[in-house]
Amino acid sequence: MNASTRYIAPTGLDPLMNRVFNWLPKLGISVAGSRLLAVRGRKSGEWRTTMVNLLVDETGTRYLVAPRGHTQWVRNLRVAGEGELRLGRKAEAFTATEIADADKVPVLRVYLEKWGWEVNRFFEGVTKDATDAELAAIAPGFPVFRLA
Hints:
Layout: H1 14-26, E1 34-40, E2 47-56, E3 62-65, H2 72-80, E4 82-87, E5 90-98, H3 105-119, H4 132-138, E6 144-147
């Protein structure tokens, strides 16, 4: 697996836990900033949903990071270019721009500071304390989108 195809599929209890945790934002419950991401399928055009961690940096810029790599939601968002963040009955439309690998280092660091406890297993030993060079080395395997 190379960085452009890196994808860590759910295993073990992950599929069950994902289904359970996807209900929380539907009920209006946000865990550490989580939202239900809704994006139109690139082939079907139907809404597809999954829980994501919405990252808001110190400037108020919002990002979505894909810790499992080039997932279906990433592929759909690349094609659609827009989606919705849902929490309970509220749905906020957004447009997304994928950011270049060179610009991901500070975003990945903040993401790991906030959600490392949840996603460290997907980062292959790289933590919030990694050097910029270490984060830059893994950046191609972790799609990041800036939301507007």
